[in-house]
Design a protein that fits this description.
- By secondary structure, the protein is mostly helical.
- The chain has a domain at about 1-55: Multidrug-efflux Transporter Regulator, Chain: A, Domain 2.
- The protein is about 65% helix and about 5% strand.
- The protein has a two-stranded antiparallel sheet.
- It is rod-shaped and about 160 Å long.
């Protein structure tokens, strides 16, 4: 077992990101024992001089949380899939209801137009001047030689 830590191991031990540790190395705040093709070899004493170690119980708790979270995440992903499917169904029903509503509105508009025309014709018939047929006036005949 090597007494040196890799960048990833150092990040886990301190709770810092690998990027933060790499930046500290580049800026000279953290020195490394050796840089190889596979990465840095960091002396734990040097690492903990710059960054305090993460408490051991916190590392174990995070591990347990990760396991619990993975099961919980699976449940949540299933629930999300179910909800997305439900939303898609509801959107389909909504679109279908909108189509029915548009058809009903068009039919109602056509009925209103027809009824308006009927009422207009009836009003025209009621308001048209009435021509009453007059009985012909009796023709006054002149008496001709007193006979008629």
């Amino acid at each position: 077992m090597s007494i040196y830590l890799t960048l990833g191991e150092a990040a886990k031990q301190t709770g810092k990101s690998k990027t933060a540790l790499s930046l500290a190395i580049k800026e000279g705040r953290l020195s490394v024992a050796e840089k190889t093709e596979r990465g840095y070899k960091i002396d734990p004493a040097e690492l903990f001089r710059v960054y305090p170690p993460k408490p051991l119980n916190e590392v174990k708790e995070n591990h347990n949380l990760t396991l619990e979270n993975s099961e919980h995440n699976t449940f949540l992903l299933q629930k999300i899939a179910y909800l997305e499917e439900t939303i898609a169904d509801m959107k389909g029903e909504r679109d279908h209801a909108r189509e029915r509503e548009q058809i009903a509105a068009a039919e109602a508009a056509a009925r209103i137009k027809d009824m308006t025309e009927i009422i207009a014709r009836q009003n025209l018939a009621l308001t048209a001047p009435k021509v009453e047929a007059k009985a012909p006036e009796p023709v006054k005949r002149k008496k001709f030689l007193g006979v008629f």
